[in-house]
Amino acid sequence: MKGQLQVKVCGLTSERDVELAQLAGADYYGFITYAKSPRAVSLARAQELATELPSGRRVVVDVATSLEQLMRYQDAGFDYFQIHTAQSAGEGVFKQWSDLVGRERLWLAPRLKPGERLAKVLFTYAASILLDTYAKGQVGGTGQTGDWEQFQDLRQTYPDMHWILAGGLGASNVLPALAATGAQHIDVNSGVESAPGIKDAKKLSELFRVLRAVRS
Fold first, then answer.
1. What DSSP string describes 125-162?
2. Which contacts of 179-184 are long-range, i.e. CB under 8 A and separated by 24 or more positions?
3. What domains can you pick out in the chain, each with its CATH number?
4. Reported pTM
5. Beta strands in the chain (DSSP E)
6. What is the pLDDT of residues 103-123, one digit of tens each?
7. Which residues of the chain have pLDDT under 70?
């Protein structure tokens, strides 16, 4: 997954928005099944929306997933499994997830408070780490930009890992974000919406227009 900048459009909830993401040129498509998210869809609905998408591009997103639920996601045909988790969940949990779906298909999104160090044990069990902005009481989708300096430091310190930058990215700030972080994979959601769970065709198109120069 290294090389050209990769873009995941997350929080897809309708056929219209899946089509908009496809037309814009998304590389990955994210479906959130965490019930407390304003962009949540059921597993059945996520599977339905993902059916016509290319193999290898479908990402299911959840929080502190049980092993039984992860099995259901795997059986539903998803390619990657993005799990938001507290680092305190423990190595045993990370190992179970990784053993089930494989290190290459597990995207861990640890909740990092400002100044908190990333636990290197995560690298053993997931090839990809997604860093989103920390907010008390939320597990992602804050719409706020994160610690770009921290992201750059981690990416440079651990170049063999696959790093995904998330947090309030849109057409107005994506180029500064890339310049500051060196990210090769970004996750966009609220920055291309008109309302939670509703993608804005103009914002999505403008984002990919801005990115054209760095994706050619």
1. H-SEEEE---BTTBSS---S---HHHHHHHHHH-TTSE
2. 180/148, 180/149, 180/152, 181/148, 181/151, 181/152, 181/155, 182/152, 182/155, 182/156, 183/5, 183/151, 183/155, 184/2, 184/3, 184/4, 184/5, 184/6
3. 6-215 (3.20.20.70)
4. 0.94
5. 6-9, 28-32, 58-63, 80-85, 106-110, 128-131, 162-165, 185-188, 193-195, 198-199
6. 999 999 998 887 789 999 999
7. 1-3, 134-145
